[in-house]
From TrEMBL:
The active site is at 124 (proton acceptor). It comes from the Bacteria. Zn(2+) binds at residues 132, 135, 183, 186. InterPro entries: DHS-like_NAD/FAD-binding_dom, NAD-dep_sirtuin_deacylases, Sirtuin, Sirtuin_cat_small_dom_sf, Sirtuin_class_II, Ssirtuin_cat_dom. One of its GO terms (molecular function) is zinc ion binding. Binds 1 zinc ion per subunit. Its cofactor is Zn(2+). It comes from Spongiactinospora rosea. Its EC number is 2.3.1.286. This is NAD-dependent protein deacetylase.
Length: 280
C-alpha cells in the first residue's frame, strides 16, 4: 500500500502516484473552463443555448452548414482570444519534469499546446484548422476566417449575442444572409477539423491512444465527465489492465467507480499544488 493512502489523504495519494511518472493524461472540457470556454455537462455548460451540431446535420444540409459557419465565424475571435490557464501550464510542467508519458485531450481548443505541452494527441481534432470533405486538404482556420470576412463585409459588426466558447446566437433571417466559402483547391465542402457528435474518431488515432494507455503507469483524467464513450473507452482499457486511474473533476464522472483516486476540486489550484509537490 502507498504510504500516502495510510494518511487517508486523497491529494497525497494523487501526489504519490504522479511522482512515480509514466502518467498518461486524459483531459476534457473541464480543464478549459478556467480559460472561459464553457464545458458541456458542468456548471458552465448548462447555460449553453444551443445543442451541438451533429455530423449528419452538417453533411445533410447546406442551410445547416451556413448556420454553423455564420455562428462560428462570429465566435472565432473568442476562441483565438482564450489563453491557457494554470491547469494547462501545470500539465506542461509535469511533462517537462519527465513525469508524463502522453497527453490525450478531448478538447479542440489547442490550449494544452499553448500552455507549453508537446506531443498532445487531439482525440477530437482541433478548431484551428479546416478540412475539405472532397480532396481532404487541411488548411489553417485563420485563412478561412479571412476569406469569410471578405465574403461577408460588415457582418461582424452586425452581431447578436456571442457566447464565450464561440457559439453566436443568431436568428435565422440573419443567418440566411451569410455567404459560406468552399475549398480553394477543388470547390468541395469545408468542415472544421474536429469530430462532430455522430462521427467516429479515425481508427489510427484511437489505436494510438489505446497504445499510450496500455503503457501508462497511471491514467490521470482531468476535467471530463467521461459521458462520451470516445474518452471513457481508455478508462475501460486501463481498468482491464489493472492500471491505476486517478480523476480530478468537479462533480461525478462515469469512471469514478473504476478510479483508485477521485478528487472533486477545481483543476487550476489542484494541479498547481501538485506541481509544487512533485515537479519543483
Ligand atoms: N474546450 C473545448 O475544447 C471543449 C469545450 C466543450 C466541449 N468540448 C467537447 O465536448 C465533449 C465534452 O466531454 P468532456 O467530458 O470533455 O466534458 P464534459 O462537459 O462532459 O465534462 C466536463 C467536466 O469538467 C468539470 N469541470 C468544469 N470545470 C472544472 C474545473 N475548473 N475544475 C474541475 N472540474 C471542472 C465539470 O463539472 C464536468 O464534470 C468532448 O468531446 C469535447 O471534445 C470541448
Ligand atoms: Zn478540396
Amino acid at each position: 500500500m502507498h504510504t500516502a493512502a495510510k494518511t487517508g489523504s486523497t491529494f497525497a495519494l494523487l501526489t504519490d502516484l504522479v511522482a512515480g511518472g509514466g502518467v498518461v493524461v486524459l483531459s476534457g472540457a473541464g480543464l478549459s473552463t478556467e480559460s472561459g470556454i464553457p464545458d458541456y455537462r458542468g456548471e458552465s455548460g448548462r447555460k449553453r443555448p444551443a445543442s451541438p451540431m451533429t455530423y449528419q446535420t452538417f453533411i445533410g444540409s447546406a442551410a445547416a452548414r451556413r448556420r454553423y459557419w455564420a455562428r462560428s465565424h462570429l465566435g472565432w475571435r473568442h476562441i483565438t482570444g482564450a489563453l491557457p490557464n494554470t491547469g494547462h501550464r501545470a500539465v506542461a510542467e509535469l511533462q517537462r519534469h519527465g513525469l508524463v508519458a502522453g497527453i490525450i485531450t478531448q478538447n479542440v481548443d489547442g490550449l494544452h499546446q499553448a500552455g507549453g505541452a508537446s506531443g498532445v494527441v487531439e482525440l477530437h481534432g482541433g478548431l484551428d484548422r479546416v478540412r475539405c470533405l472532397s480532396c481532404g486538404e487541411r488548411s489553417p482556420r485563420h485563412a478561412l476566417h479571412l476569406r469569410l470576412a471578405a465574403a461577408n463585409p460588415g457582418w461582424e459588426s452586425a452581431t447578436a449575442e456571442i457566447n464565450p466558447d464561440g457559439d453566436a446566437v443568431l436568428d435565422d433571417d440573419l443567418v440566411g444572409t451569410f455567404t459560406i466559402v468552399d475549398c480553394g483547391g477543388c470547390g468541395g465542402v469545408l468542415k472544421p477539423d474536429v469530430i462532430f457528435f455522430g462521427e467516429n474518431v479515425p481508427r489510427v488515432r484511437v489505436q494510438e491512444c489505446y497504445t499510450m494507455t496500455e503503457r501508462a503507469a497511471l491514467l490521470l483524467v482531468l476535467g471530463s465527465s467521461l459521458t462520451v464513450m470516445s474518452g471513457y473507452r481508455f478508462v475501460r482499457r486501463a481498468t482491464e489492465l489493472a492500471i491505476p486511474i486517478a480523476i480530478v473533476n468537479q462533480g461525478a464522472t462515469r469512471g469514478d467507480a473504476e478510479a483508485m483516486v477521485t478528487l472533486d476540486a477545481p483543476l487550476g489550484p489542484t494541479l498547481a499544488a501538485l506541481v509544487a509537490e512533485v515537479a519543483t
